[in-house]
Design a protein that fits this description.
The chain is mainly α. It is about 70% helix and about 0% strand. The N terminus is likely disordered.
Length: about 180
């Protein structure tokens, strides 16, 4: 007797753009926060991206995911460039101090579990920040945002092979960094 497993079904597309945006908000914030290092800038980037997505409401739901992540990625890069320019000419010690403070918003059930998760996330974010930008993007999109290789390649504007290379290098570097901090 031949036993077969049920076919894998693709996740259902959200019923509306609002449902899609509500479902992607937290992950998008974490992605933006890792790239921008400031909570307020990350919130602004995600909000701007969501507002821009409203103009694409009539597009098919399959296009929303790569479109959203592409817009967010470009917004993060714009904010990084703007900050880099501002810091070159008007940097103060206060600006540098703000970069190192992160306001963690994590609602877990118990204090011990919350503390452990915050420490793990802090180590991951610190390790991600040490990666080159393309490796950080590939890791964040593939692993943290769970996008497939093709979608990640479209978001990053490169080939699927490049995504795999960046991801492999990022995983190796992160593993070395995280093992060194234990």
């Amino acid at each position: 007797m031949l036993v077969t497993s049920p076919p894998l079904m693709a996740p259902a597309a959200p019923a509306s753009l609002e449902a899609f945006l509500a479902g992607v908000g937290t992950r998008a914030f974490r992605f933006a926060e890792a790239g921008l290092r400031q909570r307020e800038d990350a919130l602004d980037a995600v909000q701007d991206t969501m507002e821009r997505m409203l103009g694409y409401r009539e597009r098919p739901a399959e296009e929303w995911t790569p479109l959203f992540w592409s817009i967010l990625r470009r917004r993060i890069i714009d904010l990084q460039r703007r900050r880099s320019f501002r810091l070159k000419f008007w940097a103060t010690q206060e600006d540098h101090d703000q970069d190192s403070t992160i306001d963690w918003a994590d609602e877990t059930p118990g204090p011990a579990q919350q503390h452990e998760q915050q420490e793990q996330y802090t180590r991951l974010v610190q390790a991600l920040r040490q990666l080159p930008a393309r490796q950080r993007e590939a890791f964040s999109l593939r692993v943290l945002q769970e996008l497939d290789v093709a979608t990640t390649a479209r978001v990053m504007g490169c080939s699927e092979g490049s995504v795999k290379t960046h991801l492999s290098r990022a995983r190796d570097a992160l593993q070395r960094q995280l093992e060194a901090t234990r």
